[in-house]
Design goal:
- This protein has 440 residues and is α/β, with parallel strands linked by helices.
- It folds into three domains: 16-125, Fumarate Reductase Iron-sulfur Protein, Chain B, domain 2, CATH 1.10.1060; 135-229 and 361-436, FAD/NAD(P)-binding domain (3-Layer(bba) Sandwich); 244-355, 3-Layer(bba) Sandwich (FAD/NAD(P)-binding domain), CATH 3.50.50.
- Helices cover 35% and strands 13% of the residues.
- It has 17 helices and 13 strands.
- Helix 5 crosses helix 7.
- The protein is globular, with a radius of gyration of 22 Å.
- It starts with 20 loop residues before the first helix and ends in a 16-residue tail after the last helix.
- The relative contact order is 0.15.
Length: 440
């Protein structure tokens, strides 16, 4: 499947453009190369940040990329989508001083990894073991599965990823805000994973019955990294019909080219207070909708969305309405959306309403494999240190286990599970294996 060149996401400019060589060198020179670097501890995958920055500063871009990709095989997408303000850059010692901003770690990481991906040599940076005769299946082609598959492939496993959609990459491809990373860049990283020796099959749905049984029969282990399901619904009158859409569905269509923003949309509301809601609102404003409002049922201080992201949305013109509880969607006699009515009685005029209150859990996935169970939140139950489920050969990680987590934490889940699969199948991890880099 090729992406149409005129899709809506191409209208949104890169918020943090790729550094030039000189810009990267200057920024790298600011790093203090702390001995007990707090930025390493703040990275869920444990990338050795001072080391890769020092290598950039000395012109060793290959070495910098190798340091990053060893600890985080999806270090390219994480450089672009991670909330570095609350992770590595947020822990930078410069934050304790009122003199200079923290090191732009994400932008330096993007510079190193994109340089190597673009040159087509990134795959040469990671050592690979000979085939060990073991086969592993990964369900879902999002960050958790792609990370698990990559590390296992580097260790000699034959790995097949099964994805029900037409495009691999999970939310990196279909859900990340375009001003952070457009879909075609996410797909470039998917091709990097393929080049490591991972087979990715799209259009394959794993359901209870023969397909799930075939995985357990044909593979030595299975990793479940299928993420989350469809957008959750408010369940209020008027929700069904044109003009009301789930945030994940809207963002996916906007990114992949199947969404057209109607000219009559002069006002839009986004319902929710998480990062997905903020992204959707900021995207609508960036696409030229004159009035965009976020309706949140509590206060700003109680929002799960990041404060720095909300501030950027406000700078784009988005208005946040606190203590706004939608009661019904108002439609004209022809069924067109005209407003959202709140429990307070207030009306917010709109021609488009985007609902961003979370996603459903993939409960059917647990029914596929004996011993795999759900907790009271509807998430897959897996050991947090190993990713092992109640089935001895089935492991899990990412959003299917934790709900809406970060790409970087999904990657770490995949790496932990890869280590555990090696142990379960009696494969000793090489001393120089990339799987040994970063946090355990």
């Amino acid at each position: 499947m090729s992406l149409p060149p005129d899709r809506l996401e191409t209208r949104l400019p890169d918020a943090k453009p790729l550094y030039s060589d000189s810009q990267a060198a200057v920024e790298a020179s600011r790093c203090l190369y702390c001995e007990d670097a707090p930025c390493i501890a703040a990275c869920p995958t444990g990338i050795d940040v001072p080391t890769f920055i020092r290598k950039i500063g000395t012109g060793n871009i290959r070495g910098a990329a190798r340091t990053i990709l060893s600890a985080n095989v999806l270090g390219y997408s994480c450089a672009r989508v991670c909330p570095v303000e609350v992770l590595c850059a947020g822990a930078c010692v410069y934050n304790a001083w009122d003199r200079d901003p923290p090191i732009a770690i994400g932008r330096l990481q993007r510079y190193a990894t994109e340089s190597m991906l673009g040159a087509g040599v990134a795959v040469e940076l990671l050592s690979r073991a000979p085939a060990n005769g073991k086969r592993v299946a990964c369900v879902g082609a999002g960050p958790a599965s792609l990370a698990c598959a990559s590390y296992l492939a580097l260790e000699g496993f034959a790995v097949t990823v099964h994805e029900q959609r037409a495009l691999a990459g999970g939310l990196n491809t279909s859900g990340v805000a375009p001003y952070k990373m457009p879909a075609d860049d996410a797909l470039d990283e998917v091709e990097f994973v393929r080049a490591l020796g991972v087979e990715i099959r799209t259009g394959v749905e794993i359901a209870p019955g023969p397909t799930a049984e075939a995985l357990l029969r044909d593979f030595d282990a299975v990793f479940l990294g299928a993420g989350l399901g469809a957008d959750a619904r408010l369940g209020i009158p008027g929700e069904d019909g044109a003009g009301v859409v789930g945030a994940v569905a809207w963002i996916e269509r906007m990114k992949l080219g199947t969404e057209a923003l109607r000219a009559e949309v002069r006002s839009a509301v986004v319902i929710g207070g998480g990062n997905t809601a903020i992204d959707a609102a900021r995207e609508l404003a960036g696409l030229g909708v004159p009035k965009v409002s976020m309706l949140y049922r509590r206060t700003t201080r109680e929002m799960s969305g990041y404060a720095h992201e909300l501030e950027l949305a406000r700078l784009a013109g988005v208005v946040l309405v606190e203590r706004a509880v939608p009661e019904r969607f108002v439609r004209d006699p022809d069924g067109a959306l005209t407003a959202v009515e709140l429990a307070s009685g207030d009306l917010h005029r709109c021609e488009l309403a985007v609902v961003a209150i979370g996603q459903a859990k993939l409960r059917a996935l647990a029914e596929c494999f004996p011993g795999v169970v759900l907790d009271d939140r509807g998430s897959l139950v897996a050991d947090p240190r190993s990713g092992r489920t109640g089935h001895p050969r089935v492991f899990a990680g990412g959003d299917a286990v934790h709900g809406g987590e970060l790409v970087v934490t999904a990657v770490q889940d995949g790496k932990r599970a890869a280590r555990s699969i090696c142990a379960a199948l009696g494969i000793e991890i090489r001393p120089d294996s990339p799987m040994r880099a970063g946090h355990e």
